[in-house]
Amino acid sequence: MTTFDDYLETFEGDPGYLNWAAFGPISPSIRAEVFADADLLGSGRPSSLTLVDERFSEAREIAAEMLGASGDEVTMQPSATYGLMHAFYGLTGAVIASTAEFPSISMTLERASQASSGELSPRWITPEHTFVTPDAVADALDDDVAALAVSHVDFRTGYRADLAALREVIGPDRLLIVDAVQSFGVVDTDFSAADVVAGHGYKWLRAARGTGFTSFSARARERIAPVLSGFAGVDGGLPVDELPAPTASARAYSVNHPDQLAVARLAVGLRDVRDAGVAAIEGAIAEHVDRIFEIADRHGIPTVTPRERSERAGIVALAPDEPAVLSAALTNAGVVATTRGATVRVAAHAGTSVETLQMLDDAIGTLG
Ligand SMILES: Cc1ncc(COP(=O)(O)O)c(C=O)c1O
Asked: Cβ distance 229 to 251 under 8 Å?
């Protein structure tokens, strides 16, 4: 059996789960890790505490490897939004962002702007279909623009932005700030086009909450004054009777030390996905999404997600005439999805079973 097959075997639980874009049920290896680490922390032995602490560098190194970054460019965060806060609160100039972004970008950017005494301003765009394309960004560019903030995969439509093309449009000097929550671990891409990449472990990595992480390139660290930095973001030990400058690494963007159990969960989630292979995971998801499109088309349900594999990931947004009716049919059939406004969002992972997709098909079929 290959490592990827082993990985697929770890998807258990009741069939019908198509809500990976909201929450990833915790994987068996991570559940086992939680118990083992809790026992170690319960012993109080310094060697046991050290063992758990070692998960920190493991998580940082694997995240860095997967992001095409170096370890000192990655910092743990309580959640992805915290990482984006560090970026926005330290920036000046105009930041392009779509009004339809997940609020981790839109609300955080707005609040950072309000706190900036006019130094930072959102440059809101409303692109067609909410897709942040290179053309939409090009139209909003001028000399005041210091950065673009964008979700790699949009939480509502499932549209996957082309990071390399966006980098080309904004040029080498502006910052590219990426929310990779809906893509990290399931889209095999070159994240090195971005300066800041924020992700977390509680959806596609199946590692539960508290597992945020963010990378800050050298250019980002040069531009973003770490205004939210705390005592964990300095060199040396606990700074008492002194007020040292932030450390040069991405750890500058941290307030206090991370939750050990959360970091341990993240380390295992990252390791499992890295070992299984992101490209293989992406390929399996793409096939499930093809099948979801086929089901939707056969039942005459419109979708708003792009069809091209390179423009989507694990999310398909169904746009039926009566979303509430479809939502009720799915719930009745035991299919878990997210209904928001005019769309019903289904999201498949690599281990999504044939049975689960058949349940979706049957549930939609009951609508006649
Ligand atoms: C695109 C996107 N960004 C950010 C978040 C929130 O991330 P966190 O809870 O780690 O701050 C979500 C959660 O659904 C999301 O879909």
From this structure: no
